[in-house]
């Protein structure tokens, strides 16, 4: 939609408040990390650890998709494809070839970059709506292929993937460390020359071209970055669950990651982290409601969005805080 | 060798020949105005030069180097910057970020620099911001440069767009109706701004309907009508050209 | 006919109108002058319901329309031609014009008005099947004005109608505005081309910082030295 | 061969019917209405409830009764769509457009699992069946019911096409899609037009739901999910917001699935269908009949 | 689990059950949990196990690895003594190490893919017939019926695909095609056309009744006159309802013994209906048996210690279940699948041939 008469939250010239300063500099990140690090001291049941590890992985996914959707404005409805490619590459190489998990990382990087190029190159010229359907299609193609092939274990998937460590607490901390680095990396990319170019493209491709931004290459870069983040998250996922199957990589998963990004606040790193945590933990908190779980989840999503239309923690331009 | 050479350019939209054998050239540091009735093909000519439209035939060269068939970003990389007739700022981004876009081509900073926050990254970011402020000062932007660009009043958005183009540090600047929506006082400022840009050694091609400004500032005026050049010369000569008066100025408009 | 009283408009953090008052009488052309950012566009938007004033009142024909919705206001005959043309980009010229007649139920009447626009603006007639978005800047401006003419307004708010028009066309558009006015439509005209505007206007206001600082008849304003300096080019 | 074509066309006409509503809604407010497929599901259940309440239906009366149920259901889902827009979408008119995506997914969850809580997870079986003898046309096996359903779908679609291309209402819809703010200045009641669009789109989905229920016989609370995705696909392929394009998109998807199954087998069907669609879009990036949007700079 | 026995000694013994309650397989969950609850209520009415009451805790696995893993961890945290759930193989696989690490025995009522036992985990027991057992039964019956051109249809999930492919292997040349369908759709005419193009005389559907009903109906509408058989996932009264009673008439099924076919078990169905207001469905009887088996093993072990319960399960011989007297193979699968052939008669499944 085009602009409207309603004033928006973005880019105000209000003087920075203490809160906004606390919210948007590195303190927010450190505080978040601290919460993640201390959480196991408060509650360390296997269940809590498992859920928190999954949430952390989900944060990484959301941070990756945020590069594509939040920064660059490319609607990707099949992001889970990269997640699947990462998880399956790690899974196949560990169980079929016998590589240790860490040794699969370089391979995963290569494969996800290739996947990013293969999916992105022919399609990034498309307008956003068409891009959405094409990414959705690729997501489905990857999942169905995994479901049909033998190396990927068919419908029941791959099991017995070795974890990095037998101790779930240690694995949790490893995950948190990796995810923290990934989030920091995404944030830093967002504040760089490349990150600005992404945003220029999101706002106006023609104007960006006129300023010398090779929109096609820069979009592809966003796509590849997103793919790498997704792929690495896939490795963590495979290690965490020890078994992966096509049902983990459905369209619904893509939609959930996208929701995390939007719910938190597109383009805003703290927002995306919060969004991902909410989306992954909310269903767990609602678990005891059994039949009403997803009904309530749906209603809550609507309510949250109505209350905070720009997302829980919307992006503000860096300048707005000066 | 001229800075910009346009030779026998043709552009067709279906049955409409929007540009019909247009030729003109721009010398280093020169200010050339392109005028003509609405729909004469002025903006289309800009779009051809900057790669947004692909001319059906003709020759386009910057310092002898071919521009035809390049994508807009490649043209920009050769040293041409432009503004748009229907403003094309990055609306949700801050004014400052908009001007930073101009720095995209000369900012030396790799992905690794950004990930590791190397000194090079810090230096280039600082320079980028300083430059952005510099150009905003240069164009005399009055509005809030930290707020979203789309909240600026129209006239200020024009200025911000020029600042963005200047931050590109071009050799040739194409301005599409920079004075539209400005009142007399502001037009005087615009005139001054254009002169100062020229003072930096940047050549300018200007599309403008305000004859006062055109006559004051240009060294040469090119007149288009129905996609064809009907006059090319010094402002005073063009102003008296009967063909130009009939097609464009009207008998009383140059008052 | 239109009265704005003590209008205040706030955008998030910006106080754009500060107690602005002005009136437009029946049959009048009123010019509204002012620097960039003075609040001219905001004034028109407040009158046409595109922005909600935070204080003050807007009355049209004695009726309070301060909180009325934009489309209702348009239905009352108060029609706003917005800044920046805003033609419907993928609709053809003809469809754009027909949309102007959205509120007119009588097909024959719409056709009559559209034809009238084609008469006054032959360029649009040539381009009737072209998509609005591909017109040149000036052509789009004509289309925006023509579209407003089809609505059959009783009061027309024009935001910089001469922007991007060639000198010859400016003259003819101003004539058209005077003509529409002569046929009974009041006009509130925001113009940077003060010379042209004051030529056809009956009265005028000068805005600064969200409020009117000067008002008078067109002739008075033309004589005023401050106006002459800032808006008429000395 | 003709059988494959016929299969594809028949399924495709369902896709098209659902896709039309999707396309209209997407066309006007650029919303990926994830809940659209669930309105199809809702339609199937509303029809089921009405039929159940009406008691037994004599076989001779099946078609007229179904038609009446169809109309009632369309009204019901239409209103549900309007309510959905009012509650979950309208307040976000000025938010970034992806924000709507969240409420749409939320609404989808709420509808699906609300229905599950209300009607149970078990599939339900429609009390009437459009059973009938089949006959051969050019080597394809065709039933009268199929013809009636396709006929109904075509009528609904043609009416809609007339509405959008020929009437002021349709012009208003297209104008709102391009620029809601300026549309208001033209006197268009943007909210009302959007509401009506939702009504029509949702009613069509509801109609498809009843038709599917009566034809296939089985309904369940998740039945809208897959078809929602397919409708979205069809809408995009056809050229978003373009009614004939959307119809063609639906039919094309149906045909691709039919032939994909035949050539590569069921497990590779969607890979084939999506693969062809992706290839197609890279060659023709505006869909089948999508307007070539010439962006001027 | 084994660890927390001492402090839980007095409270109820908790059995955990992972089932799909949301997502595409959500319809199955209640069939399983209801039946398990029925068994628990019956046992509690008789005084419970070792003087303690049984309690059921369910968790949603959404048929998805991540939900399943979270759910399993939740059950572990809640101190379940035995896991009696597991439906989707893909979602059950990641839960094996979770329960394993906590020393909790798993009696898996539904999921039955070979991968579950491939790892030779001591704590994993399958009480559903395996794919190869069912495939063997299917092959036997097809041969007995004189089928020479069989087409196998599956829904591309591991369970169904496994049975179809094993049957194909056993049939050899008599299997002319395998057709995969996409579950959760309504229109299978493209698949049906495919199937018919092979001119089959026997069609075997190994997926669930939702699609099964539609497929039977669409096969018949397309003029198919040959035999149709379905796998155990399709054995539900809903199958005939969806297909249309007359259409489903004469459809065979491979199935372990069901309440309908076991002497004197009709009371069980009535009890189920009375309690839950609906018919039992797929895996209801296995779930019921899983709970009873768990109770028996705990009784035999004299407590909830995981290792002892596992030994008790391994030693189990002749415990009466729906599928017949129980004995585990060294692989921890049923020694005899006990598959029989049912047939739809007057809209309900009846025993056709015990295949003994
Ligand atoms: N993409 C297009 N498709 C069809 N016609 C086009 C397209 N772009 C431009 N035109 C037509 O080409 C002609 C030249 O347009 P152009 O924008 O170059 O005019 P201009 O000289 O800049 O006029 P103005 O002073 O009004 O801005 C116009 O008549 C316009 O309608
Ligand atoms: N959407 C908005 N959000 C925030 N501030 C705004 C917004 N729109 C306008 N403003 C501010 O309100 C003030 C008045 O703007 P307005 O557009 O009314 O000026 P104007 O007189 O029409 O200027 P111009 O001649 O440039 O068109 C300006 O300071 C502008 O920055
Ligand atoms: Mg132009
Ligand atoms: Mg203005």
Characterise the protein shown here:
Chain B: One of its GO terms (biological process) is L-alanine transport. Chain B: Residues 4-251 form the ABC transporter domain. Chain B: It comes from Nonomuraea pusilla. Chain B: GO terms for molecular function: ATP binding; ATP hydrolysis activity; L-isoleucine transmembrane transporter activity; L-phenylalanine transmembrane transporter activity; L-valine transmembrane transporter activity. The complex is a heteropentamer of chains A (322), B (255), C (234), D (297) and E (356). Chain A is mostly helical and 322 residues long. Chain A has helices at 18-24, 26-42, 46-71, 80-97, 104-123, 128-148, 168-190, 193-203, 205-210, 215-241, 251-264, 269-285, 293-307. Chain A has a domain at 44-249. Among the domains of chain B are: 31-80, no CATH class; 87-171 and 188-201, P-loop containing nucleotide triphosphate hydrolases (Rossmann fold, 3-Layer(aba) Sandwich). Chain B has helices at residues 42-49, 72-78, 95-102, 111-116, 119-139, 154-167, 184-199, 211-217, 235-240, 242-249; strands at 4-13, 16-26, 31-35, 57-62, 65-66, 80-82, 172-176, 203-207, 220-225, 228-233. Chain C has one domain (2-231): Rossmann fold, CATH 3.40.50. Chain C has a six-stranded mixed sheet, with helices on both faces. Chain C has a four-stranded antiparallel sheet with strand order 2-1-4-5, covered by helices on one side. In chain C, helix 4 packs antiparallel against helix 6. The two termini of chain C are 33 Å apart. Chains in contact: A-B, A-C, A-D, A-E, B-C, B-D, C-D, D-E. Chains A and D meet through helix 6, helix 11 and helix 13 of A and helix 4, helix 9 and helix 11 of D. The structure holds adenosine-5'-triphosphate (2 copies) and magnesium ion (2 copies). One magnesium ion binds next to helix 1 of chain C. One magnesium ion binds at residues 42-43, 85 of chain B.
User: How many domains make up the 3D coordinates of chain D?
Assistant: 1
CATH fold field value of chain D: ABC transporter involved in vitamin B12 uptake, BtuC
- The CATH architecture category of chain C equals 3-Layer(aba) Sandwich
Q: Name the helicity range of chain D.
A: over 70%
**Which structural category do the helix and sheet elements of chain D fall into?**
mainly alpha
Largest interface: A-D, 54 and 57 residues
Strand order of the largest sheet of chain D: 1-4
Ligand set? adenosine-5'-triphosphate, magnesium ion
List low-pLDDT spans of chain D.
none
State the fourth-level CATH superfamily of chain C. P-loop containing nucleotide triphosphate hydrolases
- Low-pLDDT windows of residues of chain C: none
Fill in the CATH topology of chain C. Answer: Rossmann fold
Overall radius of gyration of chain D = 19 Å
Number of strands of chain C: 10
What is the highest CATH level, the class of chain D? Mainly Alpha
The CATH architecture designation of chain D is Orthogonal Bundle
Largest sheet of chain D: 2 strands, antiparallel
Q: Count the E strands of chain D.
A: 4
What's the helix count of chain D?
11
Beta-strand content of chain C: 25-35%
The Rg value of chain C, from CA coordinates, equals 17 Å
């Amino acid at each position: 939609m085009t602009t409207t008469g309603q004033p928006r939250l973005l880019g105000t010239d209000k003087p920075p408040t203490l809160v906004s300063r606390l919210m948007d500099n590195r303190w927010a990140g450190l505080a978040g990390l601290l919460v993640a690090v201390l959480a196991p001291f408060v509650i360390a049941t296997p269940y809590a650890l498992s859920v928190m590890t999954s949430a952390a992985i989900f944060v990484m996914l959301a941070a990756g998709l945020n590069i594509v959707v939040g920064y660059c404005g490319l609607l990707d409805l099949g992001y889970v494809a990269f997640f699947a490619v990462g998880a399956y590459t790690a899974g196949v190489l560990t169980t079929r070839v016998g590589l240790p998990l860490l040794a699969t990382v370089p391979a995963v990087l290569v494969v996800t970059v290739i996947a990013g190029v293969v999916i992105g190159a022919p399609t990034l010229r498309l307008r956003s709506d068409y891009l959405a359907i094409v990414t959705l299609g690729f997501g489905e193609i990857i999942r169905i292929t995994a479901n049909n092939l033998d190396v990927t274990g068919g419908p029941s998937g791959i099991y017995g993937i070795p974890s990095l460590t037998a101790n779930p607490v240690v694995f949790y901390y490893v995950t948190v460390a990796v995810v923290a680095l990934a989030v920091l990396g995404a944030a830093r990319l967002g504040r760089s020359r490349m990150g600005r170019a992404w945003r220029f493209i999101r706002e106006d491709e023609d104007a960006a071209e006129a300023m010398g931004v090779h929109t096609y290459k820069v979009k592809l870069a966003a796509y590849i970055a997103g793919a790498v983040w997704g792929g690495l998250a896939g490795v963590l996922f495979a290690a965490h669950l020890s078994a992966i199957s096509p049902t983990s990589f459905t369209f619904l998963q893509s939609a959930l990651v996208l929701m995390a990004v939007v719910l938190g606040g597109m383009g805003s790193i703290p927002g995306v982290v919060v969004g991902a945590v909410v989306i992954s933990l909310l269903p767990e908190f609602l678990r005891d409601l059994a039949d009403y779980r997803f009904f309530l989840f749906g209603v809550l999503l609507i309510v949250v969005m109505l209350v905070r239309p720009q997302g829980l923690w919307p992006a503000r331009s860096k300048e707005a805080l000066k | 060798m001229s800075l910009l050479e346009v030779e026998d350019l043709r552009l067709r939209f279906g049955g409409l020949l929007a540009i019909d054998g247009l030729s003109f050239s721009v010398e280093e540091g020169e200010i050339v105005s392109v005028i003509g009735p609405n729909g004469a093909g002025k903006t289309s000519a800009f779009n051809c030069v900057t790669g947004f439209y692909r001319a059906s035939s003709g020759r386009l060269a910057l310092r002898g180097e071919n521009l035809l068939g390049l994508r807009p970003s490649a043209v920009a990389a050769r040293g041409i910057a432009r503004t748009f007739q229907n403003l094309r700022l990055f609306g949700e981004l801050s004014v400052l970020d908009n001007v930073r876009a101009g720095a995209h081509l000369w900012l030396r900073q790799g992905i690794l620099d950004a990930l590791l926050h190397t000194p090079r990254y810090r230096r280039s970011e600082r320079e980028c911001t300083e430059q952005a402020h510099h150009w905003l000062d240069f164009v005399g932007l009055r509005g809030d440069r930290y707020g979203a660009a789309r909240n600026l009043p129209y006239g200020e958005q024009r200025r911000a767009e020029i600042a963005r183009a200047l931050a590109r540090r071009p050799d040739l600047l194409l301005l599409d109706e920079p004075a539209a929506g400005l009142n007399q006082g502001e037009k005087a400022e615009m005139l001054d701004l254009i002169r100062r840009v020229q003072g930096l050694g940047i050549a300018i091609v200007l599309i403008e309907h305000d004859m006062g400004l055109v006559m004051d500032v240009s060294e040469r005026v090119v007149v288009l009508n129905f996609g064809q050049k009907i006059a090319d010369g010094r402002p005073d000569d063009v102003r008296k050209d009967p063909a130009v008066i009939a097609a464009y100025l009207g008998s009383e408009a140059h008052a | 006919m239109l009265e704005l009283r003590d209008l205040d408009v706030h955008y998030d953090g910006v106080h754009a109108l500060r107690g602005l008052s002005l009136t437009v009488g029946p049959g009048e052309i009123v010019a509204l002058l002012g620097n960039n950012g003075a609040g001219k566009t905001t004034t028109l938007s407040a009158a046409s319901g595109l922005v909600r004033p935070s204080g003050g009142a807007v009355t049209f024909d004695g009726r309070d329309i301060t909180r009325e919705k934009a489309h209702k206001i348009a239905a009352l005959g108060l029609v706003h031609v917005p800044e920046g043309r805003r033609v419907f980009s993928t609709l053809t010229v003809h469809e754009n014009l027909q949309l102007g007649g959205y509120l007119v139920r009588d097909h024959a009447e719409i056709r009559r008005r559209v034809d009238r626009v084609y008469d006054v603006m032959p360029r649009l007639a040539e381009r009737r099947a072209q998509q609005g978005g591909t017109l040149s800047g000036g052509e789009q401006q004509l289309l925006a004005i023509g579209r407003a003419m089809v609505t059959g307004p009783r009061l027309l708010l024009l935001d910089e109608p001469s922007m991007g028009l060639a000198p010859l066309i400016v003259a003819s558009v101003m004539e058209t505005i005077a003509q529409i006015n002569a046929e009974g439509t009041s006009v509130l005209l925001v113009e940077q081309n003060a010379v042209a505007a004051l030529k056809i206007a009956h009265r005028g206001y000068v805005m600064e910082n969200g409020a009117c600082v000067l008002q008078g008849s067109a002739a008075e304003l033309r004589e005023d030295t401050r106006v002459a300096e800032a808006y008429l080019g000395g | 061969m003709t059988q494959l074509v016929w299969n594809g066309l028949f399924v495709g006409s369902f896709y098209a019917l659902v896709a039309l509503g999707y396309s209209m809604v997407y066309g006007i407010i650029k919303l990926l209405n994830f809940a659209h497929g669930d309105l199809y599901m809702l339609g199937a259940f509303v029809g089921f409830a009405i039929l159940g309440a009406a008691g037994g239906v004599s076989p001779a009366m099946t078609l007229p009764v179904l038609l009446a149920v169809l109309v009632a259901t369309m009204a019901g889902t239409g209103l549900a769509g309007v309510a959905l827009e009012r509650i979950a979408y309208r307040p976000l008119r000025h938010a970034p457009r992806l924000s709507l995506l969240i409420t749409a997914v939320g609404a989808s969850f709420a509808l699906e699992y609300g229905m599950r809580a209300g009607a149970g997870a078990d599939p339900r079986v429609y009390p009437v069946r459009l059973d009938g003898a089949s006959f051969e046309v050019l080597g394809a096996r065709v039933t009268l019911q199929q013809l009636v359903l396709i006929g109904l779908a075509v009528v609904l679609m043609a009416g809609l096409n007339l509405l959008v291309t020929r009437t002021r209402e349709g012009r208003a819809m297209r104008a709102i899609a391009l620029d809601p703010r300026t549309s208001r200045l033209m006197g268009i009641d943007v909210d009302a037009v959007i509401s009506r669009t939702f009504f029509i789109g949702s009613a069509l989905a509801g109609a498809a739901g009843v038709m599917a229920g009566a034809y296939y016989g089985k309904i369940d609370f998740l039945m809208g999910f897959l078809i929602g995705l397919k409708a979205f696909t069809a809408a995009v392929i056809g050229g978003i917001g373009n009614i004939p394009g959307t119809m063609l998109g639906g039919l094309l998807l149906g045909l691709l699935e039919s032939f994909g199954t035949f050539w590569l087998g069921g497990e590779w069907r969607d890979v084939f269908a999506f693969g062809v669609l992706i290839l197609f879009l890279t060659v023709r990036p505006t869909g089948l009949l999508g307007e070539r949007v010439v962006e001027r700079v | 689990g084994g660890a927390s026995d001492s402090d839980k000694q007095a409270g109820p013994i908790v059995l955990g059950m992972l089932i799909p309650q949301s997502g595409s397989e959500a319809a199955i969950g209640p069939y399983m949990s209801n039946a398990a609850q029925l068994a628990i209520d019956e046992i509690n009415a008789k005084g419970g196990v070792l003087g303690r009451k049984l309690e059921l805790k369910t968790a949603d696995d959404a048929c998805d690895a991540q939900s399943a893993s979270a759910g399993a961890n939740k059950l572990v945290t809640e101190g379940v003594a035995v896991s009696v759930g597991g439906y989707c193989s893909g979602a059950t696989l990641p839960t094996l190490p979770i329960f394993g690490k906590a020393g909790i025995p798993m009696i898996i009522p539904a999921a039955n893919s070979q991968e579950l036992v491939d790892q030779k985990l001591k704590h994993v027991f399958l009480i559903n017939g395996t794919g190869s057992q069912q495939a063997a039964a299917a092959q036997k019956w097809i041969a007995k019926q004189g089928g020479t051109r069989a087409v196998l249809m599956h829904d591309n999930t591991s369970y169904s695909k496994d049975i179809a492919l094993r049957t194909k292997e056993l049939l050899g040349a008599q299997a002319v095609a395998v057709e995969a369908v996409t579950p959760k759709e309504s229109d299978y005419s493209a698949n049906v056309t495919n199937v018919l193009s092979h001119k089959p005389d026997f069609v075997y559907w190994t997926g669930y009744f939702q699609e099964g009903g539609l497929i039977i109906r669409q096969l018949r509408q397309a003029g198919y006159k040959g035999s149709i058989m379905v796998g155990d996932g399709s054995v539900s009264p809903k199958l005939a309802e969806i297909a249309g009673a007359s259409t489903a008439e004469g459809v065979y099924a491979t199935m372990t013994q069901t309440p309908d076919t076991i002497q004197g078990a009709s009371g069980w169905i009535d009890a189920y209906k009375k309690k839950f207001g609906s018919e039992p469905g797929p895996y209801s009887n296995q779930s019921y048996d899983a709970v009873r088996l768990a109770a028996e093993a705990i009784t035999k072990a004299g407590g909830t210690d995981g290792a002892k319960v596992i030994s008790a399960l391994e030693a189990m011989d002749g415990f009466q279940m729906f599928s017949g007297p129980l004995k585990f193979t060294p692989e921890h699968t049923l020694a005899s699948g006990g598959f029989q052939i049912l047939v739809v008669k007057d809209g309900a499944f009846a025993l056709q041939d015990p295949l003994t």
